[in-house]
Design brief:
With 80 residues, this protein is mainly alpha-helical. The chain contains four helices and no strands. The chain starts with 5 loop residues before the first helix and ends with a helix.
């Protein structure tokens, strides 16, 4: 997700410019991903990015190519 998400890529670049070590950056971004995943699961909402052109639905569709698996994912984890 860090490579596909423009916001995470921007955070990575900011930390790199501040002189953070690679291991520190991965830990910080991993912690951020965990917080986002927990919030998404508890609120049953998809991630809303402020970046133009980023759509989580297309990422999910790419990972879960089977339409039945996509429907199962949305039924379990997303309130419609």
């Amino acid at each position: 997700m860090m490579l596909q998400n423009p916001a995470m890529k921007e955070k990575y670049k900011e930390m790199k410019e501040r002189g953070k070590k690679v291991k520190q950056m991965y830990i910080a971004l991993g912690n951020r991903l965990l917080r986002l995943a927990y919030a998404m699961m508890t609120k049953k909402q998809l991630y809303q990015s402020t970046q133009e052109g980023y759509c989580l639905q297309s990422v999910i569709a790419g990972k879960l190519r089977n339409k039945a698996k996509q429907a199962l994912f949305y039924n379990r984890y997303v309130q419609v």
